[in-house]
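Lab meeting, item 3. Inverse folding demo.
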Protein backbone atom coordinates (compact mmCIF):
# COMPACT_ATOMS: atom_id res chain seq x y z
CA UNK A 1 0.00 0.00 0.00
CA UNK A 2 1.23 3.47 -0.89
CA UNK A 3 0.77 6.30 1.58
CA UNK A 4 0.83 9.41 -0.60
CA UNK A 5 3.45 11.88 0.64
CA UNK A 6 1.87 15.22 -0.17
CA UNK A 7 4.80 17.18 1.22
CA UNK A 8 7.21 15.42 -1.13
CA UNK A 9 4.98 15.97 -4.17
CA UNK A 10 4.53 19.60 -3.16
CA UNK A 11 8.31 20.01 -2.90
CA UNK A 12 8.71 18.64 -6.42
CA UNK A 13 6.17 21.13 -7.79
CA UNK A 14 7.87 23.99 -5.95
CA UNK A 15 11.25 22.92 -7.33
CA UNK A 16 9.79 23.11 -10.84
CA UNK A 17 8.38 26.58 -10.18
CA UNK A 18 11.75 27.81 -8.93
CA UNK A 19 13.16 27.06 -12.37
CA UNK A 20 10.64 29.40 -14.00
CA UNK A 21 10.76 33.20 -14.26
CA UNK A 22 9.26 34.67 -11.10
CA UNK A 23 5.99 36.54 -11.77
CA UNK A 24 6.28 40.30 -11.28
CA UNK A 25 2.64 40.46 -10.26
CA UNK A 26 0.88 40.21 -6.90
CA UNK A 27 -1.15 37.25 -5.67
CA UNK A 28 -4.03 38.76 -3.66
CA UNK A 29 -6.16 36.88 -1.13
CA UNK A 30 -9.50 38.30 -0.01
CA UNK A 31 -10.30 37.28 3.57
CA UNK A 32 -13.59 38.28 5.20
CA UNK A 33 -14.34 37.98 8.91
CA UNK A 34 -12.39 35.63 11.19
CA UNK A 35 -11.77 31.90 10.91
CA UNK A 36 -9.03 29.83 12.54
CA UNK A 37 -9.05 27.31 9.67
CA UNK A 38 -8.84 30.06 7.03
CA UNK A 39 -6.00 31.76 8.92
CA UNK A 40 -4.15 28.43 8.89
CA UNK A 41 -4.63 28.01 5.13
CA UNK A 42 -3.47 31.57 4.49
CA UNK A 43 -0.34 31.03 6.58
CA UNK A 44 0.53 28.02 4.40
CA UNK A 45 0.09 30.11 1.25
CA UNK A 46 2.07 33.00 2.70
CA UNK A 47 4.93 30.67 3.68
CA UNK A 48 5.19 29.19 0.19
CA UNK A 49 4.94 32.64 -1.40
CA UNK A 50 7.92 33.75 0.70
CA UNK A 51 9.88 30.67 -0.37
CA UNK A 52 9.19 31.44 -4.03
CA UNK A 53 9.74 35.18 -3.63
CA UNK A 54 6.18 35.88 -4.78
CA UNK A 55 4.40 39.04 -3.61
CA UNK A 56 1.45 37.74 -1.59
CA UNK A 57 -1.06 40.21 -0.14
CA UNK A 58 -3.98 39.44 2.18
CA UNK A 59 -6.82 41.93 1.78
CA UNK A 60 -8.77 41.71 5.03
CA UNK A 61 -12.38 42.84 5.40
CA UNK A 62 -14.61 42.99 8.44
CA UNK A 63 -17.71 40.83 8.48
CA UNK A 64 -19.60 44.13 8.75
CA UNK A 65 -18.78 45.02 5.14
CA UNK A 66 -21.85 44.98 2.90
CA UNK A 67 -22.14 42.52 0.03
CA UNK A 68 -22.12 45.30 -2.57
CA UNK A 69 -19.09 46.95 -0.96
CA UNK A 70 -17.24 43.64 -0.91
CA UNK A 71 -18.02 42.98 -4.57
CA UNK A 72 -16.79 46.46 -5.50
CA UNK A 73 -13.53 45.89 -3.63
CA UNK A 74 -13.01 42.49 -5.28
CA UNK A 75 -13.53 44.07 -8.70
CA UNK A 76 -11.03 46.84 -7.88
CA UNK A 77 -8.40 44.31 -6.84
CA UNK A 78 -9.05 42.25 -9.96
CA UNK A 79 -8.82 45.27 -12.25
CA UNK A 80 -5.50 46.41 -10.77
CA UNK A 81 -2.70 45.76 -13.29
CA UNK A 82 -0.39 44.79 -10.42
CA UNK A 83 -2.67 41.88 -9.51
CA UNK A 84 -1.72 38.70 -11.36
CA UNK A 85 -4.02 36.35 -9.47
CA UNK A 86 -6.76 36.39 -6.85
CA UNK A 87 -8.13 34.12 -4.17
CA UNK A 88 -11.35 34.53 -2.22
CA UNK A 89 -10.73 32.57 0.96
CA UNK A 90 -13.67 30.29 1.63
CA UNK A 91 -15.91 29.76 3.47
CA UNK A 92 -17.32 33.26 3.64
CA UNK A 93 -19.37 34.36 6.68
CA UNK A 94 -22.94 33.06 6.40
CA UNK A 95 -24.44 36.54 5.75
CA UNK A 96 -22.91 36.60 2.26
CA UNK A 97 -24.27 34.98 -0.89
CA UNK A 98 -21.24 32.98 -1.99
CA UNK A 99 -22.17 32.77 -5.66
CA UNK A 100 -22.87 36.49 -5.79
CA UNK A 101 -19.47 37.30 -4.28
CA UNK A 102 -17.61 34.87 -6.54
CA UNK A 103 -19.22 36.46 -9.59
CA UNK A 104 -17.12 39.56 -8.89
CA UNK A 105 -13.90 37.63 -9.53
CA UNK A 106 -12.01 38.50 -12.68
CA UNK A 107 -11.95 35.10 -14.48
CA UNK A 108 -8.55 35.89 -15.99
CA UNK A 109 -7.10 36.20 -12.47
CA UNK A 110 -9.04 33.41 -10.74
CA UNK A 111 -6.28 31.24 -9.26
CA UNK A 112 -8.71 28.73 -7.71
CA UNK A 113 -10.38 28.12 -11.08
CA UNK A 114 -13.87 28.71 -9.68
CA UNK A 115 -15.16 31.02 -12.41
CA UNK A 116 -14.52 28.60 -15.29
CA UNK A 117 -17.61 26.59 -14.35
CA UNK A 118 -19.74 29.70 -15.11
CA UNK A 119 -18.31 30.15 -18.60
CA UNK A 120 -19.10 28.32 -21.82
CA UNK A 121 -16.34 26.94 -24.05
CA UNK A 122 -16.43 29.96 -26.40
CA UNK A 123 -15.89 32.33 -23.46
CA UNK A 124 -13.04 30.19 -22.09
CA UNK A 125 -11.31 30.17 -25.48
CA UNK A 126 -11.87 33.91 -25.98
CA UNK A 127 -10.27 34.63 -22.59
CA UNK A 128 -7.44 32.18 -23.42
CA UNK A 129 -7.98 30.43 -20.10
CA UNK A 130 -7.80 26.71 -21.04
CA UNK A 131 -6.03 24.69 -18.30
CA UNK A 132 -5.20 27.87 -16.44
CA UNK A 133 -8.73 27.76 -15.01
CA UNK A 134 -8.58 24.13 -13.92
CA UNK A 135 -9.85 23.87 -10.31
CA UNK A 136 -7.21 23.05 -7.72
CA UNK A 137 -8.88 19.82 -6.58
CA UNK A 138 -8.78 18.54 -10.16
CA UNK A 139 -5.14 19.53 -10.61
CA UNK A 140 -4.29 17.82 -7.32
CA UNK A 141 -6.12 14.59 -8.16
CA UNK A 142 -4.48 14.47 -11.59
CA UNK A 143 -1.04 15.01 -10.08
CA UNK A 144 -1.50 12.22 -7.50
CA UNK A 145 -2.83 9.71 -10.01
CA UNK A 146 -0.05 10.54 -12.46
CA UNK A 147 2.60 10.09 -9.75
CA UNK A 148 1.45 6.56 -8.93
CA UNK A 149 0.48 5.59 -12.48
CA UNK A 150 -3.21 5.05 -11.70
CA UNK A 151 -5.30 5.11 -14.92
CA UNK A 152 -8.98 5.85 -14.29
CA UNK A 153 -10.33 5.08 -17.77
CA UNK A 154 -11.25 1.48 -16.93
CA UNK A 155 -12.02 2.12 -13.24
CA UNK A 156 -15.13 2.68 -11.14
CA UNK A 157 -14.73 5.99 -9.31
CA UNK A 158 -16.85 7.23 -6.40
CA UNK A 159 -17.05 10.89 -5.38
CA UNK A 160 -18.37 11.61 -1.89
CA UNK A 161 -19.87 15.09 -1.54
CA UNK A 162 -20.89 17.75 -4.07
CA UNK A 163 -19.14 20.78 -2.55
CA UNK A 164 -18.00 23.79 -4.55
CA UNK A 165 -14.27 23.29 -4.08
CA UNK A 166 -13.98 19.50 -4.40
CA UNK A 167 -17.10 17.50 -5.27
CA UNK A 168 -18.54 19.59 -8.10
CA UNK A 169 -15.32 20.16 -10.06
CA UNK A 170 -14.15 16.56 -9.54
CA UNK A 171 -17.49 15.19 -10.75
CA UNK A 172 -17.38 17.41 -13.83
CA UNK A 173 -13.80 16.38 -14.57
CA UNK A 174 -14.54 12.65 -14.24
CA UNK A 175 -17.51 12.58 -16.62
CA UNK A 176 -16.58 10.45 -19.60
CA UNK A 177 -13.12 9.67 -18.23
CA UNK A 178 -13.84 6.59 -16.09
CA UNK A 179 -15.76 3.37 -16.67
CA UNK A 180 -18.42 4.24 -14.09
CA UNK A 181 -18.96 7.28 -11.89
CA UNK A 182 -20.72 6.97 -8.53
CA UNK A 183 -21.76 10.17 -6.75
CA UNK A 184 -22.70 9.97 -3.07
CA UNK A 185 -24.12 12.95 -1.21
CA UNK A 186 -22.65 13.63 2.21
CA UNK A 187 -25.84 12.28 3.79
CA UNK A 188 -26.45 9.59 1.16
CA UNK A 189 -25.87 5.85 1.14
CA UNK A 190 -22.13 5.64 1.80
CA UNK A 191 -22.16 1.87 1.26
CA UNK A 192 -22.29 2.53 -2.50
CA UNK A 193 -18.55 3.23 -2.47
CA UNK A 194 -17.90 -0.48 -1.83
CA UNK A 195 -17.63 -1.22 -5.57
CA UNK A 196 -15.31 1.69 -6.36
CA UNK A 197 -11.69 1.31 -7.42
CA UNK A 198 -11.05 4.91 -6.42
CA UNK A 199 -12.84 7.06 -3.83
CA UNK A 200 -12.41 10.84 -3.86
CA UNK A 201 -13.95 12.59 -0.87
CA UNK A 202 -14.20 16.17 0.34
CA UNK A 203 -17.06 16.33 2.83
CA UNK A 204 -15.19 17.56 5.90
CA UNK A 205 -16.65 14.94 8.24
CA UNK A 206 -13.96 13.23 10.27
CA UNK A 207 -13.85 9.44 9.98
CA UNK A 208 -16.79 9.21 7.58
CA UNK A 209 -15.10 6.50 5.53
CA UNK A 210 -13.63 3.41 7.19
CA UNK A 211 -11.16 1.03 5.50
CA UNK A 212 -13.62 -1.86 5.82
CA UNK A 213 -16.12 0.03 3.65
CA UNK A 214 -13.78 -0.23 0.66
CA UNK A 215 -13.02 -3.03 -1.77
CA UNK A 216 -9.62 -4.70 -1.83
CA UNK A 217 -7.16 -2.76 -3.93
CA UNK A 218 -9.11 0.50 -3.81
CA UNK A 219 -7.44 3.89 -3.51
CA UNK A 220 -8.54 6.99 -1.58
CA UNK A 221 -7.89 10.67 -2.30
CA UNK A 222 -9.12 12.57 0.74
CA UNK A 223 -9.68 16.33 0.57
CA UNK A 224 -11.72 16.36 3.81
CA UNK A 225 -10.55 18.68 6.56
CA UNK A 226 -11.98 18.99 10.05
CA UNK A 227 -10.95 19.23 13.68
CA UNK A 228 -11.30 16.07 15.73
CA UNK A 229 -10.04 14.35 18.86
CA UNK A 230 -7.33 11.81 18.21
CA UNK A 231 -5.13 9.86 20.60
CA UNK A 232 -1.58 8.90 19.72
CA UNK A 233 -1.24 5.21 18.81
CA UNK A 234 0.26 2.87 21.42
CA UNK A 235 -0.06 5.43 24.20
CA UNK A 236 -2.43 6.04 27.10
CA UNK A 237 -2.45 9.77 26.54
CA UNK A 238 -5.74 11.61 26.56
CA UNK A 239 -7.17 12.43 23.17
CA UNK A 240 -5.91 15.67 21.65
CA UNK A 241 -7.42 18.03 19.13
CA UNK A 242 -6.04 17.25 15.71
CA UNK A 243 -6.72 17.69 12.00
CA UNK A 244 -8.58 14.79 10.45
CA UNK A 245 -9.80 13.82 7.01
CA UNK A 246 -12.93 12.01 5.87
CA UNK A 247 -10.96 8.77 5.68
CA UNK A 248 -10.23 7.09 9.00
CA UNK A 249 -6.77 5.56 8.73
CA UNK A 250 -6.42 4.88 12.47
CA UNK A 251 -7.20 1.18 12.07
CA UNK A 252 -4.53 0.59 9.43
CA UNK A 253 -2.10 -1.48 11.50
CA UNK A 254 1.51 -0.42 10.86
CA UNK A 255 0.45 0.93 7.49
CA UNK A 256 -0.60 -2.48 6.19
CA UNK A 257 -3.92 -2.79 4.43
CA UNK A 258 -5.61 -4.28 1.39
CA UNK A 259 -5.88 -0.76 -0.03
CA UNK A 260 -3.80 0.28 -3.02
CA UNK A 261 -3.07 3.80 -1.76
CA UNK A 262 -4.48 6.67 0.28
CA UNK A 263 -3.73 10.28 1.16
CA UNK A 264 -3.24 10.89 4.90
CA UNK A 265 -4.53 13.94 6.75
CA UNK A 266 -2.58 16.07 7.41
CA UNK A 267 0.24 15.76 4.89
CA UNK A 268 -1.73 14.43 1.92
CA UNK A 269 -3.74 16.60 -0.44
CA UNK A 270 -3.24 19.84 1.54
CA UNK A 271 0.39 20.60 0.62
CA UNK A 272 -0.28 19.64 -3.00
CA UNK A 273 -3.29 21.98 -3.21
CA UNK A 274 -1.17 24.91 -2.05
CA UNK A 275 1.60 24.10 -4.54
CA UNK A 276 -0.92 23.71 -7.37
CA UNK A 277 -2.41 27.09 -6.46
CA UNK A 278 0.97 28.69 -7.12
CA UNK A 279 1.36 26.69 -10.32
CA UNK A 280 -1.97 28.19 -11.45
CA UNK A 281 -0.67 31.64 -10.48
CA UNK A 282 2.49 31.22 -12.54
CA UNK A 283 0.37 30.09 -15.51
CA UNK A 284 -1.97 33.07 -15.22
CA UNK A 285 0.97 35.47 -15.11
CA UNK A 286 2.56 34.18 -18.33
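The presenter then showed the designed sequence:
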Amino acid sequence: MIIIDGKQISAEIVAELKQLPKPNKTLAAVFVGASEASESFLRQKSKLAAELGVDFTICRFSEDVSEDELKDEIKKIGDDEKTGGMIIQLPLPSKFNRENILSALNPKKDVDGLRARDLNQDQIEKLALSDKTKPLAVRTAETILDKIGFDIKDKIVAVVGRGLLVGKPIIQWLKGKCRELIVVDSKGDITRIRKADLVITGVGKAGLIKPEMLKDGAGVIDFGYSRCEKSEPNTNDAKKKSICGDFDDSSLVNGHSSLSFYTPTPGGTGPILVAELFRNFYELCK
